[in-house]
Amino acid sequence: MIYRETGQFKTTYASDSQLFPILQDRAFVIGALVFAFVAVPFLASDYLFRAILTPFLILALAALGLNILVGYCGQVSLGTGGFMAVGAYAAYNFAVRVPQLDLIVIFILAGLCAALVGVVFGIPSLRIKGFYLAVATLAAQFFIDWAFARIQWFTNDTPSGSVSAPPLSVLGHAIQGPVQKYLLVLSIVAVAALVARNLTRGAIGRSWMATRDMDVAAEVIGIRPLHAKLTAFAVSSFFVGMSGALWAFVYLGSWEPLAFDVNRSFQLLFMVIIGGLGSILGSFLGAAFIVILPLVLNQLPTALGIPLSTAMISHIEFMVFGALIVFFLIAEPRGLARLWAIGKEKLRLWPFPH
Amino acid sequence: MKREYRIKAAALALAVAGTLGVALDALAQSSKEIFVPVLVYRTGPYAPNGVPWANGFVDYLKLVNARDGGVNGVKIAYEECETGYATDRGVECYERLKSKHPVAYSPLSTGITYALTDKVFGDHIVLITAGYGRADSVDGAVFRWNFPMLGTYWDGADILVQHVKAKGSLKGKKIALVYHDSPYGKEPIPVLEELAKREGFELLKLPVTAPGVEQKATWLQIRQQRPDYVFVWGWGVMNSTALKEAIAVSYPRAQIYGVWWSAAEPDVVPAEMAAKGYNGLALGHSAEKTEPIHKDMIKYLYDKGQGTAANKSEIGSVLYNRGMLSAMLTVESIRAAQKKYGNRVVTGDEVRWGAEHLNIDAARIKALGVEGMMQPVHTSCADHGGVHAARIHTWDGSEWSYTSEMYTSETKYLAPLIKSSAEKYAAEKKLPIEDCGKAS
Amino acid sequence: MDFARHRLTIAFLALLALAAAAPMFLGVAKFPQWLEVALGGLLTGVLYSLVALGLVLIFKASGVFNFAQGAMVLFAALTLVRLAEKMPLALAIAVTLAIMIAMAWVIERVVLRPLVNQEGIVLFMATLGVAYFLDGFGQSLWGSDIYTLHVGMPKEPKIILESTFDGGVLVDMEDFVAAIIAAVLVAALALFFQKTATGRALRAVADDHQAAQSVGIPLNRIWVIVWSVAGLVALVAGIVWGSKLGVQFSISQVALKALPVVILGGFTSIPGAIVGGLIIGLGEKLSEVYLGPAFGGGIENWFAYVLALVFLLFRPEGLFGEKIIDRV
């Protein structure tokens, strides 16, 4: 009953094809955005910003990128960590070598560099499919890891190979403190989500989905596979690269190539699968789940009063993680986003039974 | 239908648990205890080496509480946080435990140290990186909050070269460096390259990708190139693998030297008798097991079932001793701070002052029960390291024994390197450089 | 073998052989040193094949890409080494085998059966979840230390052909014995598949699930058998790798190396796993020793993958794999 769309008539084409045609959806999204921008900075603690909200948003952006590639275009990729590294080091090099550039410009340029690398490593997808492609993207991951560890130019000839980001400032205004960092990341992610949503609604998104469902049939009706797959790689890597730059500059501050290793790629793939393939909301839900789960598992034994060694807690984390993934895949293979959609469907009837 | 209810219930339960777990965090911290967080790794490929260090560290804190009733009557509260040697988990642990007002962190990872170095400037928390961390953080004028006590990797590299030079001139010889491909492994390279130019030897750099189980090609190359000495700068399973591969290519163990993190029991025991003759740097201490401090550990902790190590035989192993000494330096810094500011719960700034004015002389070392395990430590604004000495110990198949004199690193060559590196960092981060002459 | 159809593959293999021998032609290496590296590479490759075998077995019979193979190798090795502390080795091996069979049964019931008609990617993710679970479970049961596994493998190397070449050629005896064990295992598996009724049933299931069911072959039981055999292969791989490296967490990372092996050889071919392993091992070691110094070292981590990737561009189904037929 709450979610009914009766009475909402569209009188213009513009209103019919808008992003959130149902009033309740619009209200909810705008309400959530206002809450995130205005209320959260006052309500949340320092720790919540630094350790939960900021990494959640950055990883959600990366999951968004990966979802475009895996969920919308059907190209399995295990090299996401490598593309994040490309974004991070590209941003570092721009910041160090061309210090006049503004931070937002640096992030966008970093994204573009990652997009370029993504296209190069996406070329094999024209010939290779499925698991084979997944393992081929692992080649990208390991090669990129090695390149940043070995080639001194990328790390500005630091002997230790560990680089640190310069102080952040946007349009002359310095970004200090967890709240400002949170707002910066939130703005970037909100804009990126909007762009991604519109891309997936448009012709290019439809070409991705056609390639995912039946690529031969798609080719037959005139969708160029080269165009579809490479644009998917490019757009996905752009988002992933930007998130890598954010991760390095805003969250870590100082990093080395091991921060973007193959475990990061698996973590992002988990986010996408658990959140829901082919869904923008799913990327956010999956990211929230994966970010919060280890913290909950860490705090739960102490909260329940059971003393466990940190090693045992770590092992239990692994076990619960693995078990939850299997559980989710059995119970709802289309992820948390599907649960959300089911919830909305129920709201159409509630409180009536039928 | 039933299945969907179950799923919904599970999802709701998870969501509630999630919010609860996050909200329940940072419960009230007693304001009557000094909080020392312990960043450890008890899982993952570095666990075999991380576990004894962690046990030694925590045992010492427990001992101070049990035997002495705390530092001048103020007890120490501690909490372990698992990092798995990963930088982002280390940062997360740091942020989570910050709300409990910690005074000093010992991250046991050069990578995490690099990440935290930026943050401690604003958070006013001391980083005590005993035997690891940034080599240039010896310069206290720039790195006000970092204390690489007991010795840095640049000291270690210099001392190793001094030792092998004493066996015969190095001109025309070849030295191979098998190193962990991370900031930790790359740290000694600038100094070794300088020394290669000065002493006339050829430096062969052989990186090993983390975690370091694939070394067959590395050691086949060593067999072909026949270097006169091999320096191992590894950690975790890379060390034992290196020794095993060295045995597999019949490279004489007596010509292999490991840094102080590559010369402990977990590294040689897997290879057993075949590792006989392997040498390593001893950071002032080796595997002393019967010092007064160890007797105290057994008396006050293990006999009462309060010990952290699973096995009493771990007490006194190389890494256990090192963890113990790291904790000891933290406690001594707190003690020095209390001496100036009063016997109460001291703040990060005060402990920083304490760490910068440490004066652990021979008498104090004896009183602490670690005579023979430590050289006198004297820190100052210009020298946050306090001591720059080490010697060599060798494995004879069943235990370690000292096989050299105590060496001190050559300050006159290292000082300009440290200064230029520190100044580069200060310029990059736009940090003020303290004037050590005026600092109190 | 139809030479005309496979000309690309043959050209690729010829190119590989040329590249492998190149260091000698360019004067960078002398034959005995090259032989040492090549032998070391081939033997390491056999070790990778051991892990890849389990992958291929499971994929052949149930179409599932078992990412948990590495975790199974680690779990088997951990269980064995800890049990061996308390009982004689032979008994420990038997008990570990029983545990691996029980594990296979549990995985089939809990993970595979509910997911029976899902897409490949979902099953792959499920095995990834199983891998994480096994990692945590094994370590929480048995601990995270490095454990030494004593199975009597030789540790000192052997120098052969000392009279022919100056300095002789070094052969790692432990790897050599491991290669012999692997050969025996493959022969045993081949016999099992060709001569026994269960083996025939497995081949039938691998060929066509529905046809096999229609002649009365119980699919679920076959899957338990396949996972058990994969568990046995994992145990052997665990013994060999554990003896070589010490039983520790990183063994499960070695399994990642089995992926390019399976790609090169084809997901559904046992000889492919062996040949792929040999090629990957050889290529890896030769590239690290002779190509590596030009790049600063450390290239063997990605070289195997890049090699597999390049190979895939010419032959997307691997050396011996079944050709992928897309149906619209």
Task: Give structural notes.
The complex is a heterotrimer of chains A (354), B (440) and C (328). Chain A is mainly α and 354 residues long. Chain A has one domain: Orthogonal Bundle (ABC transporter involved in vitamin B12 uptake, BtuC). In chain A, 73% of the residues lie in helices and 2% in strands. Chain A is built from 14 helices and 4 strands. In chain A, the strands form 2 sheets. Chain A has a two-stranded antiparallel ribbon. In chain A, strands 2-3 form a two-stranded antiparallel ribbon. The mean pLDDT of chain A is 89. By secondary structure, chain B is an alpha/beta fold. Helices cover 44% and strands 14% of the residues of chain B. In chain B, strands 6, 7, 8, 9, 10, 13, 14 and 15 form an 8-stranded mixed sheet that branches. In chain B, strands 3-4-5 form a 3-stranded parallel sheet, sandwiched between helices. In chain B, strands 1-2 form a two-stranded parallel sheet. Chain B starts with a helix and ends in an 11-residue tail after the last helix. Residues 25-29 of chain B have low confidence and may be disordered. Chain C has 328 residues and is mainly alpha-helical. Chain C has a two-stranded antiparallel sheet with strand order 1-2. The B-C interface holds B 42-45, 47-48, 51, 181, 205-209, 211-214, 216-218, 220-221, 223-224, 237, 240-241, 244, 247-250, 266, 269-270, 272, 274 and C 33, 36-37, 40, 44, 139, 144-146, 148, 155-157, 170, 172, 174, 244-246, 248-251, 253-254, 284-285, 288-289, 292-293, 296-298, 300-301.
Task: Looking at this protein, list some descriptive labels.
heterotrimer; B: 440 residues; alpha/beta; Rossmann fold; three-stranded parallel sheet; 15 helices; 15 strands; globular; C: 328 residues; mainly alpha; ABC transporter involved in vitamin B12 uptake, BtuC; 12 helices; 2% strand
Report the end-to-end length of chain A measured between terminal Cα atoms: 10 Å
Q: Rg of chain A, please?
A: 21 Å
User: What is the residue-averaged pLDDT of chain C?
Assistant: 83
SSE arrangement of chain C, N to C? HHHHHEEHHHHHHH
Overall 3D shape of chain A: globular
How many DSSP E strands of chain C?
2
Structural class of chain A: mainly alpha
CATH class of chain A reads Mainly Alpha
Please list the strands of the largest sheet of chain A in the order they lie side by side.
Answer: 1-4
CATH architecture group name of chain A = Orthogonal Bundle
Output the CATH topology of chain A. ABC transporter involved in vitamin B12 uptake, BtuC
By secondary-structure content and strand pairing, the structural class of chain C works out as mainly alpha
Q: In percent terms, what proportion of residues of chain A is strand?
A: under 5%
The major beta sheet of chain C can be summarized as:
2 strands, antiparallel
